[in-house]
Amino acid sequence: MKNERHLDAIVIGAGVIGAAVTLELARKGYRTLCVDKLPAAGYGSTSNSCAIIRTHYSTLDGTALAWESYHHWKNWGEYLGFEDERGLARFIETGMVVVRSEATTYQQHLTFHDELGIEYEEWDADTLQSKVPFYDVTAYYPPRRMDDKEFGTPSGKEHPGAVFLPHAGYINDPQLATHNLQRSAEAAGAVFEFNAEVVGIRREGGRVEGITLKDGRAVAAAVVVNVAGPHSAVVNRMAGVDSEMKVGTRPLRKEVHYLPFPPGGQGQPYGRLASDHDVGVYSREEAGGLMLVGSVDPKCDSLDWVDDPDDFNREVTEGQWKAQVYRMGLRVPELEIPNRTKGVVDLYDATDDWIPIYDRSSLNGFYLAVGTSGNQFKTAPMVGQLMAELIEACESGQDHDADPVHVRGPYTGRDLNIGFYSRNREIHRDSSFSVLG
User: Fold this and answer.
1) Which pLDDT score, from 0 to 100, does residue 323 have?
2) d(CA 437, CA 383)
């Protein structure tokens, strides 16, 4: 590790958001070190992200941040300003079909889209059927699990149709995208160190002084940023700031399953990326003729909170496999469901209201970009900029708790209030309280 005695900032966590924060601090001239306990950037929960880029959120602030970040992904090479020797991750813009349910009109989401000038199309059931011919547009709400005797029973009501969002898609390789950020940050002067586990936050007189690593080294810096993903609550406890936060974070175990992409959907312009609230799943195409299927957290799917982020079941479970893939099968009758389960299991870092925390803390110089998993991959480039602006303002004397820092979006020109993501906020009752944010 170079110049560890002459650092301005340390970022804990080299996932997609940690790498973006590192890049933006380095661009501001901070001598920045990013440390991660894993062997490379993006090897943690980022590597198993579905990496979906979308604009619909349950709050105006969340929608605005996602819309701003969409432009970064759309212009990825321009944003990075540096060519990675591994090549650049690609944004595959498919558009997104959001299948409505009896309980989700999505009118609030569309109001936000209208205010921000984001295009969308509203489809009735007939239009949905014509646009996505491999779908069965029977209404089933509410979503149920396989052990429910009413599973697969139509509601008997008219299907409410869907919304199509053209400015959506996915990143083909989330780990490569993180490596792209790393290389761009290094070109700006940042340093990354891997296999470097943080075991302590050094503090003195109400201010952070740096970190202690597992190998015994003490690394000094006036700024430390917690972007530790599912380990964020552990790091907050090290810093002694967890008890003063009104909103907390916890690791949440999640499964995403692989299925063969339905033959009728291959080559179709619509349905390659979808969120279906009538049956309670989301899906997207994957390389190799596959489909990824996850849960949108309907009430029938209990949340699997984890006490220790280093000790959880990493195997696909039969119960959740059946819940997700058979619900998908209701919508796509020709879906082939293999006899053997296949998928990925990892942890989210979720807040109490599923809206992230981008904030300072009660320990001067210690900052938080936490509670981001599941719905914030898409906002990473802009979050890096928010955090860099927040840190610069606070370190220059601005009281962010009393006078929140605002950032002007470089693409949309919209004012982004970082105070919306405060650790001391009241629970946002407008939140979906789900992976949708």
Assistant:
1) 97
2) 15
User: Quick one: pLDDT at residue 374?
Assistant: 84
Q: How many CB atoms lie within 10 A of CB 156?
A: 7
φ, ψ of residue 125 to 5 degrees: the values are -60, -40
The mean pLDDT values, 10 residues at a time, for the chain of 437 residues are: 69 98 98 98 94 94 96 97 96 97 86 96 97 97 96 96 98 98 98 98 97 97 98 97 95 97 93 97 96 95 95 97 97 95 96 96 98 92 98 98 96 94 92 79
In this structure, which amino acid lies at residue 167?
H
Residue 267 Cα to chain centre, angstroms: 28
SS (H, E, C) the chain: CCCCCCCCEEEECCCHHHHHHHHHHHHCCCCEEEECCCCCCCCCHHHHCCCEECCCCCCHHHHHHHHHHHHHHHCHHHHHCCCCCCCCCCEECCCEEEECECCECCHHHHHHHHHHCCCCEEECHHHHHHHCCCCCCCCCCCCCCCCCCCCCCCCCCCCCCEEEECCCEEECCHHHHHHHHHHHHHHCCCEEECCCCEEEEEEECCEEEEEEECCCCEEECCEEEECCHHHHHHHHHHHCCHHHCCCCEEEEEEEEEEEECCHHHCCCCCCCEEEECCCCEEEEEECCCEEEEEECCCCCCCCEECCCCCCCCCCCCHHHHHHHHHHHHHHCCCCCCCCCCCEEEEEEEEECCCCCEEEECCCECEEEEECCCCCCHHHHHHHHHHHHHHHHHHHCCCCCCCCCCEEECCCCCCEEEHHHHCCCCCCCCCCCCCCCC
Q: What is the pTM of this model?
A: 0.96
First-to-final CA distance of the chain: 37
Separation of alpha carbons 243 and 263, rounded Å: 52
Strands 32-35, 218-220: pairing is unpaired
Scanning the structure block, which residue is given the tokens 């003729």? Answer: 289
Predicted confidence at residue 87, as pLDDT, reads 97
